[in-house]
Write a structure and sequence with these properties.
Elements: H1 5-17, E1 20-21, H2 22-31, H3 37-40, H4 53-56, H5 58-74, E2 80-86, H6 92-103, H7 105-108, E3 112-118, H8 122-133, E4 137-139, E5 148-151, E6 157-161, E7 172-177, E8 186-191, E9 194-202, E10 210-214, H9 220-225, E11 234-237, H10 239-255, E12 257-266, E13 275-278, E14 281-283, E15 293-295, E16 298-299, H11 300-307, E17 312-318, H12 319-325, H13 328-338, H14 342-356, E18 365-371, H15 373-376
Parallel strand pairs: 2-3, 2-7, 3-6, 7-12, 12-16
Antiparallel strand pairs: 1-9, 4-5, 5-6, 8-9, 8-11, 9-10, 12-18, 13-14, 13-15, 17-18
Helix pairs in contact: 5-6, 10-11
Bound molecules: S-adenosyl-L-homocysteine (SAH).
S-adenosyl-L-homocysteine (SAH) binds next to helix 4.
Length: 403
């Protein structure tokens, strides 16, 4: 163990077989089964390395819970749905959503709800199990797919998986909050000789120090991932995010449901966004791998391209706008009125500011959704435009209409 173990492991590997792609480096640093950052630390939260919206305010998860109920109603109240969360962190978001589901039990009364968590980190899945079930879980060593199961404090069955492909098919609402930004990216640099991939290598001058180098020629990734019309000089691509979005889109097309993706990102315009966080401070991505969170902005234009055809997409829309549309201002007023002491009120206002202020998380975080085509356009709209009642708008991307 120890914080130098990952670096020594990588240095040995680089000396033996040469530089690796940034994607391979990121995968090792974050999810190596023995020494990866998420495997060992997974520092989400105030005491960790980075703080996320669900950890800042319960209102965030509650409004997302309302989004799913609103979509469930708009889609004709199917008799069952799975809530599938990718990378649930400490489990806070799911807990806040389940609280809303319980509060609105009369609305959901005849619906069979189950929760499916996709999590690779044993450490974080343990934290999730304690928070969501009070620790009453069954480990499932025989089952290749479901590695743990339990019942939430609100009575909903919960299952844990390592891969989205292990989640059973069925009508599902998917959630990915700060998940895609943790997946490995490839980095490319335009040079006079054409596109080159950025690689991670050992520094020959300093023992056990890493450095970036450019591939001497094109790599398979430069051929596959750079668009011919690309105008930027530096590009980051996350093929794993592309594969997962393709899976989500085909599952939604086949079995119904929707996916909500929330992350910081851009629409195919940014260049160098790869960075590290440790103890809430920026951290050199190449130093002490395994001890810091590594992350890159999500390219929503790429996700849209990967979904295309199979589902419709909405967004990206800024977090500030999405939460406003979901009624965060009204929710804040109610909570302020119900809180007796000044300290609680100040806390509520402070967390609202963190989520909504354009200088804080309001502008850089975005919401993006995958929805079945028929959710946005009547299948026979072209032929008989007047024959059907209009489809209800999708909340968050439009104002929430409460009936
Ligand atoms: N959604 C949470 C946590 C974000 S941190 C929040 O917003 O607070 C990223 C999460 O994704 C962690 O739970 C991490 O363990 C998980 N994760 C990272 N890579 C993963 C992968 N390849 N498959 C499944 N989960 C992964």
């Amino acid at each position: 163990g120890g914080d130098g173990a990952m670096l020594r492991h990588l240095a040995r590997k680089l000396r033996a077989s040469g530089p690796v792609t940034v994607a391979e480096y990121m995968r090792e640093a974050l999810t190596n089964p023995g020494q990866g950052y998420y495997t060992r630390r997974g520092g989400v939260g105030e005491s960790g390395d980075f703080i996320t919206s669900p950890e800042i305010s319960q209102v965030f998860g509650e409004l997302i819970g309302i989004w799913y109920i609103s979509e469930w109603m708009a889609m004709g109240k199917p008799s069952a749905f799975q809530l599938v969360e990718l990378g649930p962190g400490r489990g806070t978001l799911t807990e806040d959503i389940l609280r809303v589901f319980k509060q609105l039990a009369s609305v959901l009364s005849k619906c069979d709800v189950s929760v499916h968590l996709v999590e690779v980190s044993p450490k974080l899945s343990e934290i999730q199990a304690v928070l969501l079930t009070g620790g009453k879980v069954q480990a499932n060593p025989e089952d290749e797919c479901v590695y743990m199961k339990g019942i939430s404090k609100t009575g909903v069955p919960i299952f844990w998986y390592r891969d989205i492909q292990d989640v059973p098919p069925g009508y599902s609402f998917y959630l990915a909050h700060e998940f895609f930004d943790a997946l490995p990216i490839h980095k490319f640099q335009r040079t006079e000789k054409g596109w080159r991939e950025v690689l991670v290598d050992i520094d020959p001058q300093v023992p056990d120090r890493l450095r970036f180098v450019l591939s001497p020629s094109r790599t398979p990734a430069t051929q596959n991932f750079i668009q011919p019309e690309e105008s930027r000089d530096h590009v980051e691509v996350c093929p794993e995010a592309g594969v997962i979005v393709q899976r989500l889109a085909s599952r939604i097309e086949k079995d119904g449901g929707a996916a909500l993706v929330a992350d910081y990102g851009h629409d195919g315009t940014k260049t160098d966004t790869f960075r590290g966080f440790r103890n809430h401070k920026l951290h050199d991505v190449l130093s002490a791998p395994g001890t810091a969170d590594l992350t890159a902005d999500v390219d929503f234009s790429y996700l849209r391209k990967m979904a295309q055809g199979r589902t419709a997409t909405l967004g990206p829309i800024k977090q500030r706008q999405f939460l406003k549309n979901m009624g965060i201002d009204l929710r804040l007023q109610v909570l302020l009125q119900n809180s007796g002491d000044t300290a609680t009120r100040e806390q509520l206002l402070h967390s609202y500011d963190m989520l909504m202020n354009p200088e804080k998380m309001g502008d850089c975080f975005n919401f993006f959704a995958l929805l079945p085509h028929h959710r946005l356009v009547h299948p026979d709209k072209k032929d008989k435009p007047e024959s059907k009642s209009p489809l209800p708008p999708v909340a968050g991307f439009n104002e929430l209409l409460l009936k």
